[in-house]
Design goal:
The chain has helices spanning about 60-75, 100-110, 120-130, 155-160, 180-185, 195-210, 225-235, 245-255, 265-280, 320-335, 355-365, 375-385, 395-405, 410-415, and strands spanning about 35-40, 50, 55, 80-85, 115, 135-140, 165-170, 190, 215-220, 240, 285, 290-295, 305, 315-320, 335-340, 370, 390-395. It is α/β, with parallel strands linked by helices. Strand 15, helix 11 (about 355-365) and strand 16 (about 370) form a beta-alpha-beta unit. Helix 1 packs across helix 2 and helix 10 runs parallel beside helix 11 (about 355-365). It starts with about 35 loop residues before the first strand and ends in a 5-residue tail after the last helix.
């Protein structure tokens, strides 16, 4: 695998010689940007930390991912109005203001980024009207407006009134039909940002035309969150490797004791259906063969390893064991394409991080094309210092899963066709 760029998966939007998936929406490259007012939906839903001078951005990956689109729009002389949500505020929560994000964006661009006093309203309209070519205005947290998640047409119309052109570069929010992702795109000429376009191309290439063998690794807590993807890949992948707490729904369906492990009760029936379907599939469905247990969900808890998947009463399965990591790693190393979404265990607790670390290292070293589907998997890669060692690191956890499942994403579908 060729060495990744420093911004691999977070702003590296140039297309290589490798075949990409299809993308039928108009690109920001084709948009009439000269002297236009552009409303750009970005995904600045980033973690904030407390600093000496107040709140600050804890991880700027998503901000960096949007830079190529922002820079292209500014270079074309547009007056740019950025909008994003941040967290899940209840009303106008100043702890989730966009001000720290504007500070970090300004540092990365070397330019002033003004924060609007609200999302819409007369003051916002005045601030937008004052913009000159190349200027940037960041609207306040879009979820300060209750109409955002409700896709309120009045909010969408107010946002559309600020601009001439709409650009969506927020792949991580494209699976939501919100006012800033879907509603406003129905009212303005809508174009795909560079990041959103590449996300769709990279992920659909894995879904529809992967290099073989296709090895899919799925972890996390709930079978119900991944059932659509599991069923899809049972039809198209060569191997599906299961880890994380959702493996215990499969074990329960097989009658294997799970002790005090986290088990999604509604996932047991789903897991049973998957196991039955896998019998008639050409795809190999694999479950962990050994486990690392803890007496409780705590880094200080007593720990033991078992050489089979049975969990005794009084113990919790918190990680896959070394034999599982070895078996999974061999398949990953032989794959033409690898897609990973979801950790193998409680990697946030160091004593139970080895399974996720081992799989992450195998994915990073794989000679095939490697794609990681955002969310906790991306956090794990970053924690292990491997986030630059995969070919594509998606910025969208839920969006990447829905796209892989074959669902249409409202924020993409609302954009103009080519």
């Amino acid at each position: 695998m060729s060495p990744p760029s420093p911004e691999r998966g977070a702003g590296d939007v140039e297309l290589s010689e490798r075949k990409r998936g299809s993308f039928t929406k108009a690109s920001v490259r084709e948009a009439p940007l000269d002297d236009a007012r552009v409303l750009a939906r970005v995904d600045f839903n980033v973690p904030l930390t407390d600093a000496d001078h107040g709140r600050a951005v804890g991880d700027d990956t998503r901000i960096r991912a949007a830079l190529p689109t922002i820079e292209l729009v500014r270079e074309r002389g547009a007056r740019t109005i950025l909008v994003s949500h941040l967290g899940r505020p209840k009303g106008h929560d100043l702890a989730l203001s966009m001000s720290p994000v504007a500070d970090r964006l300004g540092e990365l661009l070397g330019a002033a980024v003004r924060v609007a006093p609200a999302v819409v309203g007369p003051e916002v309209e005045a601030a937008a009207a004052e913009l000159a070519a190349g200027d940037l205005l960041l609207l306040e947290n879009s979820r300060f407006e209750p109409g955002e998640t409700a896709n309120d047409p009045r909010l969408a119309a107010a946002l559309a009134g600020l601009a001439d052109v709409y650009v969506n570069d927020a792949f991580g929010a494209a699976h939501r039909a919100h006012a800033t992702t879907e509603g406003v795109a129905r009212l303005l000429p809508g174009y795909a940002g560079l990041l959103l376009e590449r996300e769709v191309r990279e992920l659909t290439a894995v879904r529809d035309d992967p290099r073989r063998p296709l090895c899919v690794i799925l972890g996390g807590a709930k079978v119900s969150d991944k059932i659509g993807v599991i069923e899809r890949f049972l039809e198209t992948a060569d191997q599906v490797l299961i880890g994380g707490a959702m493996c215990f729904s499969f074990f329960r369906a097989l009658g294997i004791p799970t002790g005090d492990s986290l088990v999604e009760e509604q996932g047991i029936g789903l897991a049973a259906e998957v196991l039955e379907r896998a019998k008639g599939s050409d795809c190999r469905l694999m479950l962990p063969v050994d486990l690392v247990l803890g007496e409780r969900f705590d880094a200080a808890a007593e720990r033991r390893q078992v050489d089979d998947p049975e969990v005794p009463d009084g113990w919790m399965g918190l990680d896959v064991g070394p034999r599982t990591v070895t078996a999974y790693s061999e398949l990953i190393a032989a794959a033409g394409t690898v897609f990973w979404n979801g950790p193998m265990g409680a990697f946030e607790l160091e004593p139970f991080a080895a399974g996720t670390r081992g799989v992450a290292e195998a994915v990073a070293a794989a000679p095939g094309f490697t794609v990681v589907g955002g969310g906790d998997s991306a956090a794990a890669l970053a924690a292990f210092g491997l986030d630059r060692e995969v070919d594509w690191l998606s910025t969208g956890g839920g969006a990447s899963l829905e796209l892989m499942e074959g669902k249409q994403l409202p924020g993409v579908e609302a954009l103009r066709d080519r």
